[in-house]
Amino acid sequence: xxxxxxxxxxxxxxxxxxxxxxxxxxxxxxxxxxxxxxxxxxxxxxxxxxxxxxxxxxxxxxxxxxxxxxxxxxxxxxxxxxxxxxxxxxxxxxxxxxxxxxxxxxxxxxxxxxxxxxxxxxxxxxxxxxxxxxxxxxxxxxxxxxxxxxxxxxxxxxxxxxxxxxxxxxxxxxxxxxxxxxxxxxxxxxxxxxxxxx
Length: 198
Fold this sequence. Notes:
This protein has about 200 residues and is of the alpha+beta class. The chain folds into 2 domains: about 20-85; about 90-195, PH-domain like, CATH 2.30.29. About 35% of the residues lie in helices and about 20% in strands. The strands form 2 sheets. It has a 4-stranded antiparallel β-sheet with strand order 1-2-3-4, with helices on one face. A hairpin with a 6-residue loop joins strand 3 and strand 4 (about 105-110). Helix 1 (about 20-45) packs antiparallel against helix 2 (about 65-85).
């Protein structure tokens, strides 16, 4: 007769490891190049404008370089946030946590999740999430602002995206789709369909 050792508990939660943000950094780099070119052109054209016209009235063109720089700084905010707030996929026994982009992090209780699947379109893989109709007010509900990736996928292949509520690009995470899905499946209750790549 053998004595059983203590049970080894599993992890309380998992989170997919994110890949290097090369796409976000490239977008930020191109924006900086474009902004520098525009600012340089505005300075070249309007940098020598006097503060006042000959009539004594304020010269609005003199403020154009300052306003162009201010607009360029404000325009950089989404690109910087895309580098800092990367997409996220995590799970515990209560909920699936997803951040498809940089705007919102959604906490979807498993009771509201119907299906988690992976699809591939033109060589790029996407994680898809289909939600059940709300049973109560717990957790978050995907809205238009959360569905940017899903809309991009729908433009490429509407047939695969039309029945889902969220999509996340898999290239934002380290490779290993099968292992990542298995990790999510370990936390998902029985009613959630975990679909292999199709």
